[in-house]
Recover the amino acids of this structure.
């Protein structure tokens, strides 16, 4: 199977990862032991592509060590290698507060490669609102930077992150927009923060309206 980094393929394969996660065999044993085994494989140079893929699927369920291991896999993997692609797919599939916080820290860090910082902003946009995707091209000061990502919320079409996590991500974007030394990245983050806040406000309004509507 050829794995590519286009947004459409990433979202499609992320859904496949989620489906495979639901059907993963119970024979992996106790959760802690299974997570340790998966981490050992992912951070070594051994294992087939299939082994690495299923270890990564398991790691997205390991909320204790999963964020650290997946980020370390992404850091170690040669660019555009199968392990790099699997690491990025795992980042798209991960749903845990610790991962969001780690990516916010990395996105704010000017020592990180710009290619990686932009990836982290794209991931965080998906975490903040899975119905949206970040357009990372250069933008003017008043441009729209979000586009609709249809069928990107996975099973149940629900947000994976809590309201508190999503608010923290939006605040992190606003901070980058105000303080980052790279003008293009700051502008991208500022525009994304404003649009994500608008989406969140609309979502909250719809939710409140539904709560006020009598049920028959």
């Amino acid at each position: 199977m050829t794995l590519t980094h286009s947004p459409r393929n990433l979202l499609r394969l992320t859904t496949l990862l989620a489906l495979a996660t639901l059907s993963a065999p119970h024979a992996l044993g106790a959760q802690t032991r299974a997570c340790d085994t998966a981490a050992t494989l992912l951070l070594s140079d051994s294992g087939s592509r299939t082994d690495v893929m299923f270890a990564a699927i398991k790691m997205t369920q390991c909320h204790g060590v999963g964020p650290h291991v997946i980020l370390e896999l992404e850091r170690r993997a040669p660019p555009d290698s199968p392990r790099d692609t699997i690491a990025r797919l795992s980042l798209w599939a991960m749903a845990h507060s610790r991962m969001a916080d780690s990516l916010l820290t990395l996105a704010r860090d000017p020592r990180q490669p710009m290619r990686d910082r932009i990836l982290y902003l794209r991931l965080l946009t998906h975490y903040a609102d899975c119905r949206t995707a970040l357009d990372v091209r250069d933008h003017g000061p008043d441009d729209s930077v979000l586009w609709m990502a249809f069928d990107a919320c996975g099973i149940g079409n629900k947000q994976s992150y809590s309201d508190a996590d999503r608010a923290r991500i939006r605040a992190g974007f606003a901070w980058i927009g105000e303080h980052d030394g790279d003008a293009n990245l700051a502008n991208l983050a500022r525009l994304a923060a404003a649009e994500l806040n608008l989406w969140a406000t609309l979502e909250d309004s719809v939710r409140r309206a539904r709560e006020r509507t009598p049920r028959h």
